[in-house]
Amino acid sequence: MNDLNLNIFDEPNWLQPIFQNIPTILQEQPWGVWRAEPRLKDGIFTGKWSKAPRNPTTGKMVGTDKPELFGTYLEAKRAYELGDYTGVGVLLTGKGIVGVDIDDAADTFDINPEIKGWTKKALRSGIYCEISPSSSGLRLFMLGTMSFSGKKIGSLEIYSDVRFLTVTGHIQKLRDA
């Protein structure tokens, strides 16, 4: 018998996508679907969940360096609605869209108030911002280019190319705080 008991995982209550809120410019990019799968290290759950991209038509995992193997927004929406996936996501391909991922936003903002300030400024300027699938993070998408494909510093990540980012359509509005 396997010592690993999957029932002990405290799986988040994943947000269901609100498709009508997803901006058209994102819809025009390559899309995939994903299943929440526990990340294991030496057979032990790390507390993190993998959201590896899959082709929405075949269900096969696809690498972020192969945009031609992804599907369309409508294919991803259809595959998700059939009920076999946890969520959907977009592939950034270096063609003018930058994605910012802020994990555990409340903690990140407490530790790095400058990130909170930058996020508020971005929201005031009208940048699209949504709540992550786990409800604990934020994802921002904006038009722009970068001289590098991506970078991760702690719980803040910024990417423009070769990166799959989950999308929920749960828009984050600016709040006074």
Helix count? 4
Structural class: alpha+beta
Beta strand count: 10
As a whole number of angstroms, the C-alpha radius of gyration is: 16 Å
Oligomeric status of the shown chains? Answer: single chain
Mean pLDDT: 92
* Tally of distinct domains: 2
Strand order of the largest sheet: 6-7-5-9-8
What sort of overall outline do the alpha carbons produce when their principal axes are compared?
globular
Percent of residues in helices? 10-25%
The major pleated sheet works out as: 5 strands, antiparallel
Which ranges are low-confidence, i.e. pLDDT below 50, for 5 or more consecutive residues? 1-7
The portion of residues forming beta strands comes to 25-35%
In N-to-C order, the SSE pattern is: HEEEHEEHHEEEEE
Q: For the record, give the distance between the C-alpha atoms at the N and C termini, rounded to a whole number.
A: 51 Å
Describe the structure.
The protein is α+β, with helices and mostly antiparallel strands. It folds into two domains: 69 residues, no CATH class; 77 residues, no CATH class. The protein has four helices and ten strands. The protein has a five-stranded antiparallel β-sheet, with no helix packed on it. The chain has a three-stranded antiparallel β-sheet with strand order 1-4-10. The protein is globular, with a radius of gyration of 16 Å.
